């Protein structure tokens, strides 16, 4: 009887933990839905207004037969394309975050050569920069391989590097630093751009959050929360250090598994 009771208690405890995990996931999904409804209604309003006003202008051009004004037509269609792109980016990021929150992202770690991986990634970014800037890579310590999912890591670093360029236009080159220590490796993405106000940094990885000093720069407010989820799945940790007007540093730490 004692043994049966102990087994039942263990089963109840296990089911209680499973229920607790499920409830937490449901709570996160509920919060995400609430945030999406309130934020999307605001973020969609501006691009939809742009599309509406410019389609009306386009109709005026056509009805007044001012087809010879090609530059005017290009400006109108250009504004429409940007607005549609803004909405598409938001929907794509919402779908990604939804998949992440539901726990359906596959985790396939490989024994990864981080130096080769990061060099390839930075080279790809350097080839497409229109302002001539590059991201400089620095390596300290004795390199070793780390068990990581390359796809998840690529998504994370792409987001952070893209932000480093986007928020530091006309400033010094951003940097990627690989720091190999005995028990861990630290990947740092550093820029010398606008930075993040200190009072807002606690909300940095929250879905839809955007700092007050970057509202005029295109973005969905979901990139960093998605990057953080990818890091978590890869069994790592990410923190941010920033100073307004001086730039930002995002540090990702992965433990070395010997």
Description:
The structure is a single chain. The protein starts with a helix and ends with a strand. Helices cover 53% and strands 16% of the residues. The chain has 258 residues and is an alpha+beta fold. The protein has 5 helices and 7 strands. It is globular. It has a 5-stranded mixed beta sheet, covered by helices on one side. It has a two-stranded antiparallel sheet with strand order 1-3. The protein has 2 domains: 101 residues; 146 residues, Histidine kinase-like ATPase, C-terminal domain (Heat Shock Protein 90), CATH 3.30.565.10.
Structural class: alpha+beta
Please report the total strand number as a whole number: 7
Number of helices: 5
CATH architecture of the largest domain: 2-Layer Sandwich
Integer-rounded radius of gyration: 23 Å
Compute the separation of the termini in Å. 45 Å
- CATH fold-level assignment of the largest domain: Heat Shock Protein 90
**How can the largest sheet be summarized?**
5 strands, mixed
For the record, what CATH class of the largest domain applies? Answer: Alpha Beta
Helix content: 40-55%
* Percentage of residues in DSSP E strands: 15-25%
Q: How much is the average pLDDT?
A: 81
User: Tell me, what's the shape?
Assistant: globular
Unreliable sequence segments: none
- How many domains comprise the coordinates? 2
What descriptors fit this protein?
single chain; 258 residues; alpha+beta; Heat Shock Protein 90; 2 domains; two-stranded antiparallel sheet; 5 helices; globular
């Amino acid at each position: 009887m004692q043994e049966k009771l102990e087994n039942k208690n263990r089963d109840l405890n296990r089911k209680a933990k499973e229920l607790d995990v499920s409830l937490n996931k449901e709570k996160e999904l509920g919060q995400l839905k609430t945030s999406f409804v309130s934020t999307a209604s605001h973020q969609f309003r501006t691009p939809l207004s742009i599309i509406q006003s410019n389609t009306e202008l386009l109709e005026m051009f056509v009805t007044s037969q001012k087809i010879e004004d090609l530059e005017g037509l290009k400006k109108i269609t250009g504004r429409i394309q940007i607005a549609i792109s803004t909405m598409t980016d938001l929907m794509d990021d919402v779908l990604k975050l939804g998949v992440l929150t539901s726990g359906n992202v596959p985790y396939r770690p490989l024994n990864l050569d981080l130096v080769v991986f990061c060099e390839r990634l930075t080279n790809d970014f350097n080839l497409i920069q229109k302002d001539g800037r590059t991201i400089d890579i620095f390596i300290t310590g004795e390199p070793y391989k780390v068990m990581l999912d390359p796809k998840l890591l690529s998504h994370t670093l792409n987001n952070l590097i893209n932000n480093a360029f986007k928020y530091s236009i006309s400033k010094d080159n951003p940097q990627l630093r690989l720091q190999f220590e005995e028990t861990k490796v630290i990947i740092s993405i550093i820029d010398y751009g606008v930075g993040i106000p200190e009072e807002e940094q606690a909300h940095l990885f929250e879905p839809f959050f955007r700092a007050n000093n970057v509202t005029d720069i295109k973005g969905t407010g979901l990139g960093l929360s998605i990057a953080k989820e990818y890091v978590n799945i890869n069994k790592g940790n990410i923190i941010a250090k920033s100073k307004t007007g001086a730039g930002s540093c995002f540090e990702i730490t992965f433990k070395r598994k010997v």
